[in-house]
Each structure stands twice: as structure tokens, then as C-alpha cells.
What we know:
Chain A is of the alpha/beta class. Chain A has helices at residues 28-40, 52-61, 76-85, 106-114, 127-138; strands spanning 20-24, 45-49, 66-70, 97-101, 119-122. In chain A, helix 1 (28-40) links the parallel strand 1 and strand 2.
Amino acid sequence: xxxxxxxxxxVRSGRRGPARLLLVEPDFVxxxxxxxxxxxxxxxxxxxAATFTRGEExxxxxxxxxxxxxxxxxxxxxxxxxxxxxxRTETAAQAPMAVLVEKIDAATVLALKTHGIARVMLKPxxxxxxxxxxxxxxx
Amino acid sequence: xTPAPIPFDEAxxxxxxxxxxILDTPxxxxxxxxIAFARQEFRVPIALLSLVDESRQWFKARAGIDACETAxxxxxxxxAVHARSTLVVADTLDDxxxxxxxxxxxxxxIRFYAGAPLVMPSGHAVGTLCLIDTxxxxxxxxxxxxxxxxxxxxxxxxxxxxxx
Lengths: 139, 164
């Protein structure tokens, strides 16, 4: 049997392989830099989606241990979060999730609380901040 | 000051650089994005995508500096290209290779430098993605990993770029 701990990537109990997270972020440089760095420093295996449509496709194909979603003003990102929480994807409904937002107000905070969001980050934020978040989601 | 050494594979390295058909081309948004991103991520006043030509380093993308090129012999990037590994100088005044470099003693008064070489698939380093500050700094392992990811993205774009 392969010793998965030798990869250095976090191994979640009951799962085979390193923690696998989905990052939904439209900005190419941010998304690619975060995903590449997360793998190189061995904190998680990060799948990438540039759009919510692509995020939906990936969520329909396989389960993720956590999600990091950049929310939009049109509410498509929240629909993606809701789909996970409703159990309409392959990912566990209680999977940890964090979001990135352009701005925050009371209504958004309430919606995010309702969805059990673990962390909210205000844009623009640093790659390092997202990596710390991913590391926490992967635990 | 130690002038930037010439790599053993200089002729092939220059051939690899020139085959990119990028020297002296206009700025391009995609490379400018990497540099702007790096500058913001690391909170440095200067970030560059530097290509080390025969006698100069020429900046394909630059932020925080007006010059579009400098002489190769005084370049920091020439050292990183020679080593083909990331060069970090935490404080130039503590490094005899750079303490009396005119880019240290005069504008832009470099005190910190970190340059990740742009290594082509052939193994030749054609330049660097580099960060410059006017105060001493340190980079930790995560910082270096982020710098390397940005460098890898820049290399991928250099290789996929359609010549202007």
C-alpha cells in the first residue's frame, strides 16, 4: 500500500491522496499563481476554474475537500456555494468553503453565514493570504 | 564590484534569447500584468522582466523604473543568469559583489534584489523576473515559491508568444 504521507500534501482522513480543493477565480495570474504555488509548497492539490460554469462542471465530476470561490456581483458564485450545501454536487455538503469578495455589506455577511462560509477575504488580497486559507481548508 | 560573469554556454544562450524574437519589441499587456502583480504581491517599488543580451539587460516589462535597459556588466540579473538559480541579495551593502555597484551607490539605489532566472526548455537562462527594493529585505520559502510560480508563468508566455 502506498504511503500517501510521503507526498507531503495533507491527507484527509478517509480519503486517498492529498487534500483536493477547487479554486474558482477569474483572474488568470492570481488563479494560476495560487494553484501552482499550493502544489509546489505541498499544501494541497488545487483544481482551477476560471468561470462558475467551469466550476459547476468540475463539481459535477468529482468531490473536493474544500472550495475557495471568488464571488461576483450577479450572485452566480453564491449559487455555486448553495449547490454544494444542497448536496447537488459530488462534494460533501458540509465541505469547508471560503470566499473572496470585492465588497462586503450586512446582507452579504448574512448570506455567507447562512451558507457556513469559513472565511471571507476582501479583494485585492495577496497570494500568500489565499495560500494560508487553502492550508486551513485542507486540514 | 564583481561584473556579471559570462556563462559557459553564452553563444547558445544568446541564440536561445534571440530566437524568441522579443528584444526591443513594444510592451505587451500580458507581461506587464505579471510585473504589476509581482510588484503588488511583494510590495516592492520595482519589478522587472529582464532579458540579458550580449552587452545589456533589456526590460520587456518594467514597473517602478523609467530605464528600459542597463549595461550587462553592472546588472544583478546577469549574476542570476550565470548561476541559473534564483539570486537573493538581502542587503546589497553587505555583499562585496554589489556594495559599490553604481545601481546601488546611485539611482535606483538597490538595497534588495531577488531574481528568478527565465530558463528555456533548452536549459539556457535568457533573463529573470526580478524584484528590487530600496531597503533590505528577506524572502521566506513561501515568497520564493510565489516568485517561482510567477516566473514559470512568464516563461510559458514567452514560449507561447507570437512574435510581434
